[in-house]
Amino acid sequence: MTGPARPALRLTVLVGESDQWHHRPLYSEIVHRARAAGLAGASVFRGIEGFGASSLVHTARLLSLSEDLPVAVVIVDEEERVRAFLPQLDGLVTEGLVTLDRCEVVRSASGPDGRAPGEGGPA
Fold first, then answer.
1. pLDDT digit string (tens) for 40-50?
2. Burial per residue of 56-67, b for 16 or more beta-carbon CB atoms within 10 angstroms, e otherwise
3. HEC profile for 30-43?
């Protein structure tokens, strides 16, 4: 790996695929707000099976064909930047789970300005 590891914070938001914010998928709204906030990046991962507070299992198996599969939005950046973004989730995520984990960035792709995300400003 290139260079020393840097401390970071991983924000994970677990919601349902069918959750909406003003007629738009909730996960998409979170990604667009993260980009507008200048965070290093955000990725959305679609689950194949899961359950939440309702204890109802949602699955992608052929016989059940759920339209509300679990979705994880994952954002990794410097701790201060991630914590500053958290208030934007207050009105958005009314159901679901929001977690924070300390992690280390051992490699990151350079942004258009040649800097790695979190180095000297927004990526």
1. 999 999 988 77
2. eebbeeeeeebe
3. HHHHHHHCCCCCEE
